[in-house]
Amino acid sequence: MSLASEFQAQASHPTAPLALMGGTFDPVHWGHLRVASETAAALRLPELRLVPSKTPVHRTRPGATEAQRFDMLELGISALNDPALRAENREITRATPSYTAFTLESLRTEFPTRPLIWVIGVDAFLHIHTWFQWRRLFELAHFVVLNRPGFAVSQVLSLEMADVWQGRLTRDIDALHATTHGRVYLHTVTPQAISATAIRNTIAAGEADQALLALLPAPVLAYIRAHHLYTQSPIAT
Ligand code: ATP
Question: Between 11 and 98, where is the model more confident?
Answer without folding.
Answer: 98
